[in-house]
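Protocol step 6 of 9: fold each sequence in the batch and record its structure tokens directly after the sequence line. For illustration, a two-sequence batch is reproduced in full.

Sequence one:
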Amino acid sequence: MKRQPPRPQYTIGVDIAQEQCVWVVLEGPTQTLVASGEVQRTPQALARWAARMRQQWPQALVLLEATGGLERSVRQAMHQAGMAVWVRRQQGPLWAFYDRLRRRGKPTFVALVALMRRLLVILNAILRDRTPWMPEKAMAKT
């Protein structure tokens, strides 16, 4: 029997803007809303917020969407609080693979694990063959 990867019980989604961040906490595979709020995007406010998130939801996975560099301060605050952070960048061939899985109805976590596995296979091939990263070749077999 194939083992399933562990799923985080909670997911913290953060929408990052110039002045503030809007966040939601979702529970389980049904993505039930548990909490939401706003936080100012200052280092002190983000540090306090990250510590509170860590205290209330220590095993949560934090999902950020890349916003041209605005996500760096949030990512840094969450890392310093000891939270697992994943930043999604919406470009490149790997995201086409992820989006294709999501359109086929795969749950977010399953699509993420498949994406991570795909990336590991590509990295292993790069190391094995001692070749540079070639996105068009890497995703040719999808």
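Sequence two, same batch, same settings:
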Amino acid sequence: MPEAQAAELARAGKRWKKVRRAASVSRFSAWTLGLFAAVSLLIGISDVQAAIIGVLLGMVCIIEFRGSAILGRAEERGAVLLAWNQILLMGLIIVYCVYKAFFAEHQSLVSDPQVADLLGDAETRAALEAQVGSGLTSLIDPSNTASLVRGFYLIVALAAMLTQGLMSLYYIDRRRVVREYLAATPAWVVQVHRHAT
């Protein structure tokens, strides 16, 4: 290989590295989604809700793998697909959290009926409260449980908006990185990089 071509390949390698890193991030995300989908499907053997979640996560996982492969070939549409996929995932998480917080049945945090009976007895409860404080008996009150559950799912929904929103912005920015790579890199170098993946 002539020295000029080797130098051009080396310069383009730095730009290519940014594209490859973004593809690696999306591939890791896809494998993580696949793991959660598989676990949900396994649980879904005995729980329809978990099976539905597993199927939906599996679809998001497949899109993530597809977007990763397209981005790995330095195609802008891969970054766009990945950005929209993160928004889809965010929407699914938010819908799930809203359902669990406001429409699912909330049970007492104490699931053992014997313990609940003990805590329901006024004398036993008074003796326990004297020893450990009043917070223990709030565990059997379903209205307290509902507040805790709603608070938890609100935090999860906010975390999803933050993380998936930021990931979507990250992939949108990778579109710019791909565009700059393609604009500054000779076509023959782009072909070499694409064939190397």
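Proceed to step 7 once all outputs are recorded. Observation for sequence two: The chain has a mean pLDDT of 86.
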